[in-house]
Amino acid sequence: MIGIFDSGVGGMTVARAIEQRCPGYPLVYFGDIARTPYGSKSSETIKKYSASNTDFLLEHRAKLIVIACNSAASAALPTLQKQYKVPILDVITPAVKRAAIISKNGRIGIIGTRATIKSGIYEQGINQERPGTRVISHPCPLLVPLVEEGWLGKQETKMIVRRYLHPLRTRQIDTLVLGCTHYPLLKHLIGPRIGRRVQLIDSSIEAARSVRSFLDTHPDLASQLHDPEKESRFFVSDLTETAHQLAAKIFGRPITLKKANA
Ligand code: DGL
Asked: How many domains is the chain partitioned into structurally?
């Protein structure tokens, strides 16, 4: 199975994108709702949680791991890649590559949680890919709780999105990376407010593309993972009403969530 973990249900935007691009590959998902949010935690704590989430997925026969959480990827990717033998992909690396390629004017905006922005991982990655790029990052800590509350079209959410994007609007960026699992659900507000000339990069879609290309270039592993008869499984460390609602919203169908401890 392809193992995917996130700090909660937001990473299902990544799972959904993988499902669409890699049909026939069953997923095992773990959302660490009991310990969410990761975006406000220290890097040490996020690393510890990420390792226990990975162990959980390996126990459930995952042979490829995808870190679907930007905050977890920003803190724990190299550590997990050293610690485990299975291939570990993430949401940040492919979004970095895409941003470096598509920006025309070399001015790229990044929005994410405090942990992701503080890590500086997007700046470092983009400047490695394309030296001299100007990366303007901005944390948007209120957006995750707004999405979790289902406030996707409320006036208050529009106002907060506008306010967060203001510093980026004045810096002539032509590309904006949505560096958090929850932001794809706010694309309809972010797009018009950042301006039509700014291209949005959805890190969940980029992650799904990278999984597809990984499978295409690793046919032996791909054939072990391919099993159209097997159903995907979704585990969470706490069962909440919001989790059910958000999961159904992301997948466009009800999702059965099972409680488990990592
Ligand atoms: N999944 C997290 C991310 O992508 C957002 C939620 C959290 O802070 O845990 O950064």
From this structure: 2
Q: Which residue has a Cα nearest atom 6 of ligand 1? A: 37
Say if residue 47 is in the same domain as residue 100: no
Residue among 69, 72, 115, 215 flagged as catalytic: 69
State the residue for tokens 């390792």. 51
Is residue 261 over pLDDT 90? no
Ligand 1: centre distance to CA 39 (Å): 5
On whether the CB atoms of residues 179 and 200 are closer than 8 A, the answer is no
247 and 189, same structural domain? no
- Measure CA 222 to chain center: 22
Domain boundary among 203, 222, 247: 203
At 162, list the tokens.
């506008």
What residue has token string 């699992």?
A: 181
Residue 214 in tokens: 């990984």
**Is 69 an annotated catalytic residue?**
yes
**Which domain does 169 fall in, by range?**
92-203
pLDDT digits 0-9 by tens, 102-124: 999 999 999 999 999 999 999 99
Confirm whether pTM is higher than 0.85. Answer: yes
Do 142 and 186 sit in the same domain of this protein?
A: yes
Q: How far is CA 88 from CA 2, 33, 45, 242, 261, in A?
A: 10, 21, 19, 29, 21
DSSP state of 8: S
Pocket of ligand 1 (CB under 6 A): 6-8, 10-11, 36-39, 69-71, 112-113, 116, 144, 180-182
Cβ-Cβ contacts under 8 Å for 145 (sequence gap 6 or more): none
* 106 in the same domain as 72: no
User: pLDDT tens digit string along 137-176?
Assistant: 999 999 999 998 889 999 999 999 999 999 999 999 999 9
CA gap 115, 112 in Å, rounded: 8
